[in-house]
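Figure 6 in text form: structure in, sequence out.
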């Protein structure tokens, strides 16, 4: 259904409403208008990595982990599964008269903010630090979620527009200011792609101000750019409580009616919060017009019409409740978990051989933690498998499995009466008895997350109690595999091997076993830079890109963006640019079937506006059997040959371009860690 068709129907419907009825539909918990056959509807629903907060659902790896797959096809497939389960739940709830929160089809996902600083607690919800990767994955997520039928399968929402990435404790009062270059080169491209290419149905504003204006009432962002430059036709929704911040924290208005009026006039159609309860007062005070209210009502009703809520022939109404939490979706969650984990170090201890082990110790606060699988904005699966559960199942009758918690996640003792480090001795004894120790450390959403929950990290270190456990287990002198569960970069180097598991979803334990024991070769790649210390970074509150992310960081990272090891080796040859694509031959020269993430980076060498380092401009995930060689084509979009100048204009500078293709970015640290360098092509334009 076209937007024009939906808007025509919406205008006719809204014209039959009273002003009070129109205003009531601009709340996230919109009441029914029975005389017009409009049921109550709660707009608030979440689907970051699975249908969230709505009962049993398939739980995929956290968003940052999905980004580590570097796979556009997987992203669209996963979003399609989420939409299917969302429809199944909506159909079920509607049939039983349940119109409550988290039961609708308007999902406030994806989060396409740029993960510019590893301290940000909500960075786990994003697709990482790179604008290109974020845009490509975000576009495919939206397409998967919204579907390709006459009606929207579900409505996606690009959030939080736009210059928003912490600190969480300041978000209700912070004023983000950036250069025009940083705005157009880093902070806006993903939103632009989701609007123009994916036709995302909704956009959510951020809590903070941008250049002095609250993001949910920003003339620059909402009027000039979103609807003016980009031609956005959907509806705009505030973050929850953000409009109340106008008068409570930002102090750009004095009263709630003034805040409601300012947001509505700038184009915020829907309020998550309670401030739009004051819309009628704002109307009576002459702050807004009846036309302002009607315009917003038309936009939100058009979305409901596009979703088929006002019709009886929507093809998605036939999706049954049995589509939720089914075997096929569970298989996709397992595949995603396998592809997302990143092998950071390996001295040869991996892969493990079950037939060569007598005893395996699994140690650490995340060894048997469901929270470490979930991340935040998560659903609840009936199929969660922790690492301990997977090892016990897979090694039954083959090897002894010893478990020791070792320490709490952040606390120094397991009970108030205990001495500090009261579980370390047990962990050391387990490591002494075992042939190898799998040490499951890291964080969960109680340690990093949104303001009001966990908030931001202070540094890049494991909690002190975990550092002591790690040191004690490594001092035993037997092989240690360190597995890190987290949604952001941490400085972890200790162990014979280090594996980044992220928050891997319901199948995390099974996927971890498959990688550790060589059923599958690791193939995830880092969507963020792992720095050695926050001392390597500018202040958290500084939104300038200088010194941040792989494009602008001039120091040496611990683990670079795009990096990840494998159990096999890939050789690249015969790279050439032909007909708008980069062609390269890739051969798996190892003894194991595996997947490789082919990456292309580009730099305009003659332009002073180029970032210091080459930037990602194409990528593809390729599966190759042992010994197989394949010619791979990676499309080079015209934008790859552009730069953003200091005035914020995207221009094609011409001159010499360097292109690099391989399994990593073309930096010295990646070369040392992988033992290989990408191929380089130079061309003039």
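Output sequence:
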């Amino acid at each position: 259904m076209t937007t024009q068709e939906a808007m025509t129907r919406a205008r006719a419907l809204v014209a039959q409403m009273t002003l009070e009825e129109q205003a009531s539909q601009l709340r996230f918990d919109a009441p029914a208008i029975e005389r017009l056959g409009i049921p109550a509807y709660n707009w608030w629903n979440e689907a970051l990595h699975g249908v969230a907060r709505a009962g049993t659902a398939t739980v995929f790896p956290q968003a940052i982990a999905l980004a580590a797959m570097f796979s556009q096809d997987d992203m669209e497939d996963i979003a399609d599964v989420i939409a299917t389960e969302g429809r199944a739940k909506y159909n079920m709830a509607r049939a039983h008269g349940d119109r409550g929160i988290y039961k609708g089809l308007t999902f406030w996902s994806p989060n396409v903010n740029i993960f510019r600083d590893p301290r940000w607690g909500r960075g786990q919800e994003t697709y990482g630090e790179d604008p290109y990767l974020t845009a490509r994955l975000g576009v495919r997520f939206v397409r998967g979620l919204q579907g390709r039928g006459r009606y929207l399968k579900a409505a996606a929402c690009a959030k939080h527009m736009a210059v928003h990435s912490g600190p969480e404790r300041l978000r209700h009062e912070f004023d983000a200011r950036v250069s025009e270059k940083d705005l157009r080169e880093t902070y806006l491209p993903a939103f632009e792609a989701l609007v123009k290419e994916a036709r995302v149905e909704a956009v959510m504003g951020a809590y903070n101000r941008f250049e002095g204006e609250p993001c949910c009432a920003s003339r620059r962002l909402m009027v000039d750019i979103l609807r003016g430059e980009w031609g956005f036709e959907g509806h705009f929704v505030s973050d929850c409580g953000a409009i109340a911040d106008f008068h409570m924290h930002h102090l750009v208005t004095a009263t709630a009616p003034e805040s409601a009026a300012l947001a509505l006039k700038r184009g915020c159609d829907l309020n998550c919060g309670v401030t739009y309860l004051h819309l009628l007062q704002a109307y009576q005070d002459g702050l807004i017009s009846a036309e302002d209210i009607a315009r917003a009502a038309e936009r939100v009703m058009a979305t409901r019409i596009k979703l088929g809520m006002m019709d009886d022939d929507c093809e998605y109404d036939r999706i049954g409740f049995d589509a939720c939490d089914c075997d096929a979706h569970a298989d996709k969650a397992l595949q995603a978990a396998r592809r997302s984990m990143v092998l950071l170090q390996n001295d040869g201890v991996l892969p493990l051989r079950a037939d060569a082990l007598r005893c395996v110790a699994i140690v650490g606060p995340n060894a048997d933690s469901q929270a470490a699988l979930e991340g935040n904005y998560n659903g609840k699966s009936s199929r969660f498998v922790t690492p301990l559960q997977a090892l016990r199942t897979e090694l039954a009758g083959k090897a002894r499995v010893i478990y020791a918690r070792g320490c709490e996640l952040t606390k120094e003792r397991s009970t108030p009466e205990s001495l500090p480090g009261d579980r370390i001795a047990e962990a050391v004894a387990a490591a002494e008895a075992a042939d190898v120790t799998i040490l499951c450390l890291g964080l969960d959403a109680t340690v990093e997350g949104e303001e009001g929950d966990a908030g931001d990290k202070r540094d890049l270190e494991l909690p002190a109690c975990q550092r002591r456990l790690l040191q004690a287990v490594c001092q035993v002198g037997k092989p240690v595999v360190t597995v890190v569960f987290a949604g952001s970069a941490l400085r972890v180097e200790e162990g014979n091997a280090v594996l980044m598991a992220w928050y891997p979803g319901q199948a995390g334990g099974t996927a971890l076993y498959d990688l550790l024991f060589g059923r599958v070769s690791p193939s995830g790649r880092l969507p963020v830079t792992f720095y050695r210390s926050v001392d390597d970074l500018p202040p958290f509150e500084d939104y300038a890109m200088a010194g941040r992310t792989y494009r602008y960081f001039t120091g040496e990272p611990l683990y670079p963006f795009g990096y990840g090891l494998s159990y096999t080796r890939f050789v690249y040859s015969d790279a050439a640019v032909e007909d708008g694509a980069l062609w390269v031959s890739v051969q798996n020269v190892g003894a194991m079937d595996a997947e490789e993430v082919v990456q292309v980076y580009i730099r305009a060498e003659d332009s002073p506006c180029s970032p210091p380092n080459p930037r990602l401009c194409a990528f593809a995930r390729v599966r190759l059997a042992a010994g197989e060689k394949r010619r791979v084509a990676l499309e080079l979009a015209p934008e790859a040959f552009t730069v953003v100048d200091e005035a914020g204009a995207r221009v094609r500078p011409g001159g010499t371009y360097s292109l690099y293709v391989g399994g990593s970015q073309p930096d010295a640290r990646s070369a040392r860690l992988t033992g290989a360098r990408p191929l380089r092509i130079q061309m003039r334009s």
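Caption detail: The mean pLDDT is 97.
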